[in-house]
Every structure is written in C-alpha cells, then in structure tokens.
Amino acid sequence: MTAGAALGAATVRARVPVDLHRAAGRTAELVTFRGLPDDGEHLACLVPPRDTRAPLVRLHSECLTGDVFGSTRCDCGPQLDEALNLLAVHGGVLLYLRQEGRGIGLYNKLDTYLLQDRGTDTFEANRLIGRGADERDYLAAAVMLRTLGLHRVRLLTNNPDKVRQLRDHGIDIAETLPTGVHLTPGNAAYLEAKARSGHHLPVRGPETEVRA
Fold first, then answer.
1. Which residue numbers are catalytic?
2. What are the GTP cyclohydrolase II domain coordinates in residue numbering (predicted)?
C-alpha cells in the first residue's frame, strides 16, 4: 500500500467525558474509521485545542491487562495516563490502536506470560510461540492521521520504529518527544528488554534506581 493511497474515512465523532484522574476533566472526542487497511477497530481520541501546525500525537497500542486492569508487568497503563495528561494540557490526538501484545493478540500475550515467568524476555517469548517479536504495523495509524487532516505532528514516543514507519507512510514528524520511564520492581525486566530492542529508555539493568 503506498503512502498516497486513498484510504480511510471518519465515521462517528462522539464527545466523551474523559476520566478526571486521566485527563484533568477534559472532554474528548472519539472518532471511529472505516476503510482502514486492516480489520482493527482503532479509535482516535481528540483533545482540543490542538496545534494546527504540528499537534501532539501519541500512538498507544491496546493493552487490556495494563490499561484496564492496572497490570504492573508492563508500563502501558502509566504511559496511557501520561499521554492523556499531556493532551489535557497541550491538546492533540491519541490513537488507540487495537494491537494487543505487539500485534499477537490477547490470548497469545497471556501465553507468553507463562514463558516470561520462567525468565524469557518479552520479545523472545513472542518468538517461542511462533510469532514475531513485534508484529505491529502503523499504516493504519498513518491513514487515521491523514483522514483527520494531520500530515505533520509532534510524536510522543520512545520507540524509533513508530517514527520510522509513520515517516515511511508519509507523515512528517516535526519533533519526537520522549515519554517518561515508568520503572517499577514489577516491570524492570520488561523495560530492560525494550531498551535492548532499541527503545530510547535509560534503563541499565537490575541496579537501576526504581522510581514509582
């Protein structure tokens, strides 16, 4: 699929009161899409006012265990909270992408937890069940942004693959802003594996100071 292909159309825009804890009581707008290049029911969360020249954008991959149940095995829930808090201040867009387990799905992700409990890191556990270490593709995200009229953005991420893929799909990344390092005793090994995989995270190993 080429970056200039005509894909995607917004279908529904619904105003939603965002939880006070997560976004300072701001009211967001949720947007659904049709005609995306995959079958995911992805959502855009628009928080006004946003910079029309290069709005703040966060691509957040769904994590039921972290986002909803508050699992401390990963940093997904804190990253979602951080993004919504920043959007409450600056405005912008959060794309909530249905890519559970880096694209392998919820049940497969839970299977990999059993391997991780035996000492396998999160990426190798994916491979051991016959899946890719990270199967996420951000073409749908690029289409969503273009459908919303956003061609130049400031991207909140520590993941260089998101930057590379969005640029490959025709989105101009004006600036990359790092997320915080949400390090706890429960997710230290997970964050160390992300750092080894290329994420820009100052996580050095078990001796790293843990911050709540």
1. 134, 136
2. 20-178
Q: For residue 90, what are the domain limits?
A: 9-99+136-196
Backbone angles phi, psi at 32, to 5 degrees: -100, 165
Place of tokens 């998101």: 162
Distances (CA, A) of 108 to 14, 72, 131, 189: 32, 18, 9, 20
- Asked if the structure places residue 106 within a domain, the reply is no
- Structurally, how many domains does the chain consist of? 1
- pLDDT tens for the chain, 212 residues long, are 444 445 667 778 887 877 757 777 788 899 999 889 998 899 999 998 877 889 999 999 999 999 999 999 999 999 999 999 999 999 999 999 999 999 999 999 999 999 999 999 989 999 999 999 999 999 999 999 999 999 999 999 999 999 999 999 999 999 999 988 888 888 888 778 788 877 787 754 433 333 32
Grouping H, G, I as helix, E, B as strand and the rest as coil, residue 159 is coil
CATH of the domain at 147: 3.40.50.10990
206 burial (CB, 10 Å; 0-12 / 13-18 / 19+) is exposed
Within a domain: 149: yes
